[in-house]
Amino acid sequence: MAKSLLSLVPVAFVLPLLSCGGSQHSPDENYFLIATNIKVPYWQQALAGVVQAGRQLQVRAEMLGPDTFDPKAQHDQFVDLLKQKPTGILVSVSDPKVIQGDIDDAISQGVPVITIDSDAPASKRLTFIGTDNYKAGVTGAKIAVSKLQGKGNVVIFTMPEQSNLNDRLRGYRDTFAGYGQIKISEIVDIKGDYRVAFDKTESMVEHKANVDAFVCLEAIACPEVADVLGRNNVTGKVIIAMDTDQRTLEGIQKGLITATVGQKPFTMAYLGIKALDDLHHHPLPSLLTNWAQDVSSPVPAFVDTGATLIDQSNVADFINAQKSAPPKTK
């Protein structure tokens, strides 16, 4: 049975989104998700959610963004898109310092913006749809503590620009703080490049670094870690991954990866497009109101799409579920 983290989704917000009739929609409505590194499996799952929502609503729904982790390119894409007056924008924020001004500009121009996956909490975005990332970090950390039996050196792979990854790191730090013999020996910035994780792990193996566990706060690093350790016949290491791309799930099946915390990018994107559509057809009195501090707000500040711990006990179920997932056609 899947070990699911509970998520609380505001019913008043979600139910109207799931009951939209086709008659009120127009092909002139244009909704977009802007992300980065969009060719990786995680974002291809999100694309499937965008496509399915667009088909159901009979509106234009697309995903845009650079093929690499490039906050500046994401900013340029956002600026160019805003000039086209889209009906609504979803954005997964690569770096809040770079993108926050773009979000605020869109809101001031009357274009609703919702963040998914990675937030810009200080911006004027209307809602964040995604994982409770602190809880995801705590969940991964508890598994690491159990497998390490309360002691060991941990290397963490991350991208410090992203607020969601920082929340996960905080969850790990807070959990490890209760175990004096667990030490985070190094934090590696992979800069959105899987090759950094591969090369760093190879160097650690070559130099016989004292590492007992590898933790990845994003999707692309741990398959590389497992690959390097497998090639070098290194066993007995704890690897806690993130997300459910095929290589990660296969790594769990083979016993190379201990566990992963699976998010729901399809759900984030699917609900996000429908939320933007609902805001278009049932507009707020003002996009500039600070709805987060309004006790009668018609939009939630946060929709938790949930996360699930996946290990050898349930990985086969997730692989089968992926085989039946909605297709991507864009």
What would you say about this model in short?
This protein has 330 residues and is an alpha/beta fold. It folds into two domains: 7-131 and 264-306, Rossmann fold; 133-262, 3-Layer(aba) Sandwich (Rossmann fold), CATH 3.40.50.2300. It has helices spanning 11-18, 41-57, 71-83, 96-108, 133-148, 163-176, 194-206, 221-231, 246-253, 265-281, 315-323, and strands at residues 3-5, 30-34, 60-64, 88-91, 113-116, 128-130, 151-158, 181-189, 213-216, 238-242, 259-262, 302-304, 307-310.
Describe the overall structure:
By secondary structure, the protein is α/β, with parallel strands linked by helices. It has helices at 11-18, 41-57, 71-83, 96-108, 133-148, 163-176, 194-206, 221-231, 246-253, 265-281, 315-323, and strands at 3-5, 30-34, 60-64, 88-91, 113-116, 128-130, 151-158, 181-189, 213-216, 238-242, 259-262, 302-304, 307-310. The protein has 2 domains: 7-131 and 264-306, Response regulator (Rossmann fold); 133-262, Response regulator (Rossmann fold). α9 (246-253) links the parallel β10 and β11 (259-262). It starts with a strand and ends in a 7-residue tail after the last helix. α2 (41-57) runs parallel beside α10 (265-281), α5 runs parallel beside α6 (163-176) and α9 (246-253) packs antiparallel against α11. The model is unreliable at 1-23 (pLDDT under 50).
